Amino acid sequence: MGKSLERLTQPLSGPRVHLPALPDYSVLRHCVRCARCLPVCPTYQETTLEVQSPRGRLALLKAVADGVLPVAAEVEAHLYHCLDCRMCNTVCPANVPIGECIVAGRAAFAQQRGLAWWRRLVFRHALISAERLGLVLAPLRLYQRSGLARLVRLLLRALPAPFARLRTLEALLPPLPAHPLHATLDVITPPRGVRRYRVGFFLGCMMSQLFAAESRATVEILTAAGCEVVTPRGQVCCGAPQDDQGDRVQLRRLARANIALFEGLGALDAIVTDCAACSHMLKEYGALLADEPAFAARAAAFSALVRDIYEWYDAILPATLGRPRTPPLRVTIHDACHLANAQGVRQPQRRLLGRIRGIEVVEMTAPSACCGSAGIYNITHPAMAAQRLERKLQDIASTGAAVVVTNGPGCLLQLRAAVRERQLPWRICHISELLAAWGDLAAEEEPTAWEGADVVTPAEALATGSIPSDCAGMPLKE
Amino acid sequence: MIDARIIKELKQTLGAERVLDSPVDRVAYSYDATWAEALPDVVVLPLSTAEVSATLRIAHRERIAVVPRGAASGLSGGAVPIMGGICLCLTRMNRILEINPEELVAVVQPGVVNMDLQQAVGRYGLFFPPDPASWDMATLGGNVAENAGGPRCLKYGVTKDYVLGLEVVLADGSVMRTGGRTIKNVTGYDLTGLIIGSEGTLGVVTEITLKLLPKPAARSTVLAIFDHIEAACQAVNRVITSGVLPLTTELMDGDCIRAVQRQRDYGLPEDADAVLLIDVEGWPEALQREVDLVQAACEAAGARAVHCAHGEAEAERLWAARRAISPALAELGDKLGEDIAVPRSRIPEMVMRIRAIGRKFDLRTPIFGHIGDGNLHPYLICDRSDAAMMARVRQAAEEIFLAAIELGGTLSGEHGIGLAKRDYLERALDPVARAQMLRLKRLFDPHNILNPGKLFAETETASAP
Q1: CATH number, domain containing residue B320
Q2: Which one of B58, B89, B120 terminates a domain?
Q3: Which of A30, B192, B248, B350 could make a disulfide contact with B279, Cβ separation 3.0–4.6 Å?
């Protein structure tokens, strides 16, 4: 018998290290290491390093379970290099839930080594509800209004490299709305006309605090389409940031609180949210709490009701929207990772935009490739995030679109900051803004306000922006 | 373990950021797409031929094993550093240096991914025929090292048929150029051919000159359904003898059909023993004639039904079923994929032998493959945590190898020998040829530093005779 074949087919003995939160060993060994996830992984694309690939990260987790690698900081750091964009999940031939394994790995490390102090601070105390986020943002709102902002910006620019993160953070922050939505929205917003649906509205922390106007537009469209919108007070964060950053304990608390809150609203046709990260997380509650007898069935029932705003619009809005226009507005769709890759929602937004007359959709090469925002990734890993952003800007430029539509608040922050900083001629908008103006629905703003958004050729975009031209294709020798 | 002094020297030579020796990095370079695992001592990421050469000079002087590696999507353990040493990862040498549409030539570095080349030459209306299933991640350096094939090799041949010239760094660090840029070239020994398929045991390829072809205008897909798998194999022979050289002749047996149908309805009949997907390509004017001939040949071979896909959508649905085999089989358990090839006329017999071996060892053996080129991929479905079953899997794999050899075939069609099949090489090769191969290995690599333990056991290549 061949010794070499024996070496390849040795029976697996199973894990030697047991960490309760580590992905199940049978799931880890289900990875056949075919490498199919390498070319689609953003961090592998940038580095071509195996440790920066989904396969590499699963190998590290398996090595931890095998006792080959310690539960130590240097391994944990690698788990956090992942953007959690879930692109790998979409190509895995063995259907390994790679993204879920990586965040589970983060949770296992947190459980074993403790949560970093700043994560504890942010994910247990600051980013736990729109209200609490408001307390954090209050001084910033003051700061933006005080005229101090310009001075600080100048100061930050002059500061040395270690302050780069602060600079990134400052640059990302959009002008804050005067009032977050949760403070002004009634619990019940009646439909205009006949009530066709009764929907629970889940307010994302980011949407409410940073993009109140966009979310207000969502409510306007929903009510115009015959929805009674029920927005219960006391909503807490969906838990997506906690899930991403290894805080499963807090995530479960938040999930239970939201489920209990929405259960008290009576019969609902759907629980709708206009944040892609929230809709993903809320849909995961069923799986998350499946091991809690008191919550399993309730969580499953809750998740079954959840609809991303694109899905809900696609389901309830009329077959044709808007008015024909010449030339049509050129729009490209940026799919949030947690919408397209994690939920598999790709068609509803395309069907929806296809129904708006006066709009022409031009697709990017990789609409669901991460823009680098990735939750707090652009703050924790600014260099990699910047590389991803460059690719995304290049892809947007290649479409010649004037408008980029998305429903990820992180994406809005990231792309709008780039547009502001480089004075790019694009309007980055939330789907509800676009629908409100161009769908002839709840139009407070006339499409004329969009006139600045002209069709731009890639060459023009490149000329105005600072997109490095070496991103374009592969170099050829003369 | 490599001496710290040598790692320091490597870091000084290439720069510390491209010489990785942390435990985390070593784990990440310890595997390929097989189940084998072994840690390298250090990972080196060269950017140029000069850096590869410098690395090999050090390894040669210090007698350190060097394992060249691309995307590590190989299926024979070739990129697993079983002797430790240096993992020479070439993924950063990924520039397309030249595309010449008039000469139909491309010059690439070894880390270029096959698909990236396809896309780049596609803009000129050209294509690179070798299309291994791993084409979207595998590197061209790896394709050359394994002499990779793919479904369309029946019509176009394999990697070696499209390599005109190479730049190779030899074991001692010297740089050798072989071949050239012309299709005809009989100047001296064919060293290009020697390096192709040598699995990193004779040198490290650092530049590849490739031959391209103009992209055909149109393609048609025919689906033929059979009640007996032998008839499907006969049909392929009939198609070819009727004067048509199809692009692909993909066989899926009943096990595969049912596995993919369980996941989604691809419109395949679950009671069939086998289906064939036959594609022809060329000018649209000629295609209908070829489709007619294919249909007639399949019917004559006893097909239950023959169907030409109407439009791209249907063709795509059929090919999606073919691509779904691998994931669908993953649902059945762990799998050991094999890669034997036999002369086309012996395919029916080989299929019967595989089924008999499956029954003998009580293992499921779904079969699919590009049978027109004689290449079959029987899978052995198993459970890696079951020691008794894994022993049966090894015995079954061995019997499959031996059956292929007995029928005049070969151990590997396109995956390579690597670690997985090296112990069977003796039975698969002419003894005189094998002895010459060992002499060649010693000539090229006197200190046995290049991918030791692959193709041949490290003891066989260890010292000069």
Answers
A1: 3.30.70.2190
A2: B89
A3: B248
Which residue of chain A comes nearest to B388, CA vs CA?
Answer: A11
B109 and B205 inside one domain: yes
pLDDT band of residue A442 (cuts 50, 70, 90) is low
Residue B65 is which amino acid?
A
Residue B98's DSSP bridge partners are: B107
Q: Looking at residues B10-19, what average pLDDT do you find? A: 97
CB B183, CB B211: distance < 8 Å: yes
CB atoms within 10 A of CB B187: 9
Out of A59, A78, A94, the one facing B330 most closely (by C-beta) is: A94
Of B27, B397, B422, the CB nearest to A69: B27
Residue A148 has pLDDT above 60, yes or no: yes
Distance CA B249, CA A137 (A): 64
The answer to whether A335 and A304 have CB atoms below 8 angstroms apart is: no
Report yes or no for ipTM above 0.85. Answer: yes
Q: Is the pLDDT of residue A467 over 60?
A: no
CA distance, residue B187 to nearest chain A CA (Å) = 27
Residue A397 has pLDDT above 50, yes or no: yes
Residue-range definition of the domain harbouring residue B40: 4-89
B24, B138, B397 member nearest A69 (Cβ): B24
pLDDT value of position A463: 43
pLDDT, tens digit (0-9, with 9 covering 90-100), for B22-65: 999 999 999 999 999 999 999 999 999 999 999 999 999 999 99
B207 lies in the same domain as B222: no
Min Cα distance B8 → chain A (Å) is 21
For residues B304 and B338, state if they share a domain: no
Subunit contact A473:B386, Cβ cutoff 8 A: no
Q: Do A35 and B398 touch (CB under 8 A)?
A: no
